[in-house]
Amino acid sequence: MIAKIGKSANLYGALAYNNIKVDNEEGKILMINKMIETVNGQYSVGQLFRSFEPYLLANRNTEKHTVHISLNPDPKDLVSDDRFRQIAEEYMDAMGYGEQPFVVFKHTDIDRTHIHIVSVCVDEEGKKISDRFEKRRSMKVCRDLETKYGLISAIEEKGEIKSAIFKAVDYQAFDVKEQIASIVRHLPNYYQFRTLGTYNALLSLFNIAAEQVNGEIDGQTREGLVYFALDRQGEKVSNPFKSSLLGKEAGLIALQKHFEQSKERMKESPSRSLLSSTIETAMNITTNERDFKSLLIEQGINCVIRRNNEGRIYGITFIDHESRTVWNGSHLSKELSANTFNDYWNNNIKTERKEFVQHQSKTWQSTDTENIPDEKPHHLFDFLNSTEEEDILIEGLGALFIPEIQGEDYEELDFANRMKKTRKGRKQ
Fold first, then answer.
1. Segment holding 104, helix H or strand E
2. DSSP-assigned states of every residue in 5-46
3. What confidence tier does 401 reach under pLDDT thresholds 50, 70, 90?
4. How far is CA 22 from CA 44, 104, 287, 414, in A?
5. Domain segments of the chain as ranges
6. Which one is predicted more confidently, 24 or 127?
7. How far apart are CA 108 and CA 280, in angstroms?
8. CATH architecture of 2-160+403-427
9. CB 316 within 8 A of CB 341
10. For residue 66, which of 405, 412, 419, 417 has the smallest C-alpha distance?
């Protein structure tokens, strides 16, 4: 079982995201702990939020007060709802959140049924609950739960497919060539991508760019690839490295073969419709580009956007780490093309479909949310919570591998400021 832990400053957004799964019949609330119950067992975002409000008001100085955890058993494990409740309760207790209010959502929108737990990491007195060695403790708890309930061990699964540790290239280190080689040799074994452009979108997550070059040898034109390290602004900051120095998997011939194989495999891929649906759901929730990206990261999807010097969006690529496929927006749907997003974000041109989407997003907030910060569910949960010292590890089947996008800042708005605005509004 894989656990993913994220922290953010937006409790409302985390609740809203999970609740839309319930509204779309792609999930349900399995249990609540130390929260206000309703008569019929149905909950709006506002009703869920109220149970956490005293903790947020008591919060002293913890900026990222919301904890959002996903627990992902192996797809072969058939876990009942009762067992999921037991696992959630025991996991939260072992991690120090047993006395906290929390809500457990079961997601059924993908084949890998899993649960999400939303809580706060400040207690009733506003003190932060210790997260020291949190990831290490979480891994131990997962192993213990696997043993107790007979679940397939993520450690055992890693024995079948050798784990890969990928870290973004640090161009200031002395071994840049070795860093690049350690990534480009293995990416084709893990991801399907159809073009050099989509390959570059994937590489950009690791601060790498590939460039096609032409030359003549003995009067014959030869094509090849060179690789560069990038800084966090996407600028080239290293000398070019010939693909021949990095391994045959990094060469143009091997990649062209991979492109063709990927086209065939992705043609019938069930991930295509699911990915399109997830992207459209994100568009449903927010019209803000930064929040749109952050929401997709929550679902294990990176969005890489390409702009020209005038700021026009001419390319958009979606990297689905769950299915390990890389798609241009136009390959998914005409409505998800670069032109659509350019019109939507740069020109404020909203099609009839998107106007409908905005209307739908407003239906989440029922009349009993008058005490909730008056805003759309933007700035949704940031699932990137790894420290600089930690490797990003593909932890067996079903794990999400989400490297941080260079140059992106997903710092959430301070929730306390929104609460102040709300209280000020009430006084008027």
1. strand 102-107
2. EEEES-HHHHHHHHHHHHHTTSEEEEEEESSPPPSSS---HH
3. very low
4. 10, 12, 21, 27
5. 2-160+403-427, 165-267, 271-362
6. 127
7. 17
8. 2-Layer Sandwich (3.30)
9. yes
10. 412
